[in-house]
Design a protein that fits this description.
This protein has a 17-stranded mixed beta sheet that branches. The chain is 53% helix and 13% strand. The N and C termini lie far apart (119 Å). Strand 10 and strand 11 form a beta hairpin. The chain is built from 24 helices and 17 strands. The relative contact order is 0.06. Helix 10 packs antiparallel against helix 12 and helix 19 runs antiparallel to helix 20.
Length: 728
């Protein structure tokens, strides 16, 4: 409170309201009260000096003046200090308030999106640890994570017009956007497309860094090490797969442009260009050239995939269980054959347990014998059932399954102890035929459930229909095994065309192929429907004629073209096994033909689809088939003087030999140090080039071989070199 107001208060010059306000302020403000006390003391001293009757002592007035002045100075200094502190406090409060306002502005101001979901299915976006459902048009920002699960495929457009296609079972984090986007991928598969004139995209993976340059389209895949279920009902069991390496890899495939790859824990780098695929670990890069146009399994990341379609989820494949080894007791209970109280069914129960015990025996010949004993017990148990009892059909189906497994055991045993696998397969076919008689338009008619465009599960079918479906599928398998073992009647006889056509209709191979063809048309979107294509192809290959060969190729190409999107678990593993078998059959067919380039492409397709299985038996089988097939094609071409095909066979064989030894980038060529590998095969190619009279290529080949041949091959080389020199 100012001194003027306090003076007026002391002098009584305030009205009642003003006086009350001052008194209230004095009660609340100790500083004002002290100021008021000082003013009162000053007034008292001045009144005393005027009221004195005599002169005061000498110097008294000066002392009083000094006292009053000192009191004034001290009070004014104290008031000034209080005012300074109040001003400083207000400045601090104002600055804090301004800083808080600025922070709020920074937190709530609109962020620039890193990109947006352009098309595809739903996915999950993670923002600060919180998961949200993402749909088309949703913006994503720096730090956001995008996750996809089964059946989810998403296309994201970044702010600089780069496109990212994210497959199912994938995780991607947008670390940084803007002119130099940085993404981090930890799982799954995605495609990256960077247009001409756009900025590069950096993709960080656990194995290193991939810098995708302008004008580039590529695929990045972190494959998971999953089991593949081999379709042994068509072949028999394969040897166990060798354990895979513990270290994970990322696979980069460049369709156009180029990308720079660097390992995370070494100085290894690579400029991957169009047509190159690189297997990248944390310490090593293994690049190789691939034939993009010649591959039938490579997804080139076009604009017609699931990523470009709005809310279109792939249809999941249905696994019916028809490829599994039969569990007789389980099937008997499920189909209502066993478990009742009658004496007959008690005997059936025991027979089914006997069959299951036989299936667990590893020795093939012993297993076949024990299955025969179980079959006998099953037949005796079913004989007690009434003739019109529908369970007799189920008993016949189980009998057919036991005969089929007995045939496989006898086949694996090599027909030891006089056992004939064909007899067992034929007995299985007879039992299945008997089980299927009169099943149309009854509860056993499984085809009706598949005729409305949907694929039911096995357990949703009536028990009679389950048994009938099992009988129909296993009947085709029994026919194919029987035909594989029995020599073809058409091969053994020389007949007129009319008789040959008539016999063709009853040829077991043709009958089996037709049975599978009918099944794959009737089984809808099921794994077993795809397996039926494999069965038909195997039978057509066995038939051997050109028309059957073309049908086999068509069936195998259908199998490897099937998408596994939206499928996981045992279903995916079984489909992978069928596709693996189809690729092996393709390699075998092409290796037995005359087209060396197609043979090599088929083998590479296997490696493209199963890149982590190089140590598996199936992969080794493919490599053996290719090398033997190309060698046979080379010899056949030379024998028939088909020198152009001989050149192709020699070149393909050189490439296959180099790739088998790990020489990927320079396969079939002279290495960077000028070393020539496989000089004998190169000398064969020189001979083929001389045969084609392609003197320029022959001369170049001769120059590479000159001085690098062993002594025993030198005379042969000299002959070809002399012939070449005649034309220059």
């Amino acid at each position: 409170m100012d001194e003027l107001t306090l003076h007026r208060y002391l002098d009584g010059r305030l009205d009642e309201a003003q006086r009350s306000a001052v008194e209230a302020a004095l009660r609340a403000d100790p500083a004002s009260r002290r100021t008021l006390d000082a003013l009162r003391e000053e007034a008292r001293l001045m009144r005393s000096s005027f009221e004195a009757q005599s002169e005061p002592p000498s110097g008294f007035g000066r002392v009083a003046s000094r006292v009053v002045a000192t009191l004034h100075i001290e009070e004014r200094a104290r008031i000034a200090s209080l005012r300074t502190r109040n001003v400083f406090r207000r400045v601090v409060y104002a600055a804090s308030f301004a800083a808080a306002l600025m922070l709020c502005f920074l937190l709530v101001r609109p962020r620039t999106p890193a990109g947006a979901l352009m098309s595809g299915t739903h996915a999950t976006v993670t923002v600060h640890g919180e998961k949200r459902e993402a749909q088309k048009g949703l913006n994503v920002y720096d730090g956001d994570g995008i996750s996809t699960e089964k059946g989810q495929f998403v296309r994201i457009g970044l702010s600089n017009a780069q496109t990212i296609d994210i497959d199912e079972f994938s995780d991607l984090v947008i670390e940084k956007s803007g002119t130099a986007p940085v993404l981090r991928m930890t799982r799954g598969r995605l495609g990256v497309s960077v247009g001409d004139g756009q900025n590069s995209v950096q993709l960080d993976v656990p194995q290193g860094t991939i810098s995708v340059r302008p004008g580039t389209r590529l695929d990045v895949w972190i494959p998971e090490r999953t089991s593949v279920r081999w379709p042994d009902v068509f072949y028999g069991a394969l040897p166990a797969r060798t354990p895979v390496q513990a270290e994970s890899n990322v696979i980069v495939t460049v369709f156009s442009g180029y990308a720079q790859i660097a390992c995370a824990k070494s100085t290894a780098t690579l400029t991957a260009r169009q047509g190159m695929r690189a297997l990248v670990s944390k310490t090593e890069i293994q690049p190789r050239w691939i034939n993009i146009a010649g591959s039938r399994v490579l997804d080139v990341r076009g604009d017609d995939g699931l990523h470009a379609r709005d809310n279109v989820s792939p249809v999941e494949w249905m696994l019916l269980g028809l490829l599994e080894k039969p569990q007789f007791e389980v099937l008997g209970h499920r189909w209502g054959l066993s478990g009742a109280d009658s004496a007959g069914n008690t005997r059936i129960d025991e027979s089914l347990k006997q069959l299951d015990a036989a299936m667990g025996i590893s020795a093939h010949d012993v297993r076949a014998e024990k299955l025969a004993e179980g079959l006998q017990a099953l037949r005796q148990g079913c004989e007690i059932l009434a003739q019109n009892d529908e369970r007799r059909r189920i008993g016949l189906t189980l009998e057919g399954l036991a005969h089929f497994e007995q045939g496989r055991a006898r086949f694996a045993a090599g027909g030891q102890k006089g056992s004939d696998p064909q007899v067992s397969f034929e007995a299985a076919r007879v039992a299945f035929d008997a089980a299927l008689i009169g099943t149309a338009n009854t509860t056993s008619d499984w085809k009706t459930a598949f005729s409305n465009g949907t694929t039911p599960t096995m357990t949703t079918l009536p028990p009679e229909a389950q048994a009938a479906l099992t009988a129909a599928f296993r009947r085709a398998l029994a026919l194919s095994w029987s035909a594989r073992i029995m020599p073809s009647k058409l091969d053994a006889l020389e007949l007129s065309k009319t008789k040959t056509d008539a016999l063709e209709k009853t040829n077991p191979v043709r009958v089996a192929a037709d049975a599978f063809a009918q099944l794959h048309d009737e089984l809808g979107h099921s794994v077993e429907g795809v397996a039926a294509f494999l069965g038909e192809a195997i039978c057509d290959i066995r038939a051997g004629d050109e028309a059957s060969r073309r049908r086999a190729l068509d069936s195998l190409h259908v199998i490897i073209s099937k998408s596994l999107a939206g499928t996981d678990g045992a279903t995916r593993q079984t489909l992978d096994g069928i596709r693996e078998a189809a690729l092996i059959e393709l390699v075998r067919m092409y290796a037995n033909g005359n087209d060396a380039k197609t043979t090599l492409d088929a083998a590479r397709d296997y490696e493209l689809m199963f890149p982590l299985d190089s140590g598996a038996f199936a992969s080794q089988d493919v490599r053996t088939l290719v090398l033997k097939g190309l060698e046979a094609q080379k010899k056949s071409a030379f024998a028939d003087k088909r020198y152009e095909q001989a050149v192709d066979a020699c070149s393909a064989l050189l490439t296959a030999l180099d790739e088998a030894e790990g020489h990927w980038l320079d396969a079939g060529q002279v290495d960077p140090l000028g070393n020539v590998r496989h000089v004998g095969e190169r000398l064969d190619r020189l001979e083929a080039l001389v045969g084609t009279k392609d003197w320029l290529r022959a001369s170049a080949e001769a120059q590479q071989l000159n001085g690098r041949l062993p002594v025993d091959l030198q005379p042969r080389f000299n002959t070809f070199d002399l012939e070449i020199r005649k034309h220059f």
